[in-house]
Amino acid sequence: HNLKNDINKIFFVSQATGAFVIKMCSEVVPTYFASRLLQCLQVPTPDVKILPFYDEEFKAMVHAMEALTLHDDHLRYIVRLSMDRPFILLQEYIPAITLDKIGEKR
């Protein structure tokens, strides 16, 4: 899933080992610093990690996301364009509400 914006892009990725939010942003350092500061102040905050483009984990993540777009050329183009950055901020995804509690079941 992708939320479009001129500056920022957010991908929600769910896999067997967990779910993550991949956030491409123009201001990675302040976002990372704010997250670490909140953690030091013991404010419940999702864990974050900065991945540079040359990191093996970054490359594996891009490859995995491209593999999911095998039959959708437009989506593959969007993923490649979005991931063409020097750094990305990987943030732990902690759902505020589970799917079984949405809508009428709430």
Automatic annotation (TrEMBL):
It holds the Pfam family Act-Frag_cataly. It comes from Euplotes harpa. This is Actin-fragmin kinase catalytic domain-containing protein. It comes from the Eukaryota. Residues 9-99 form the Actin-fragmin kinase catalytic domain.
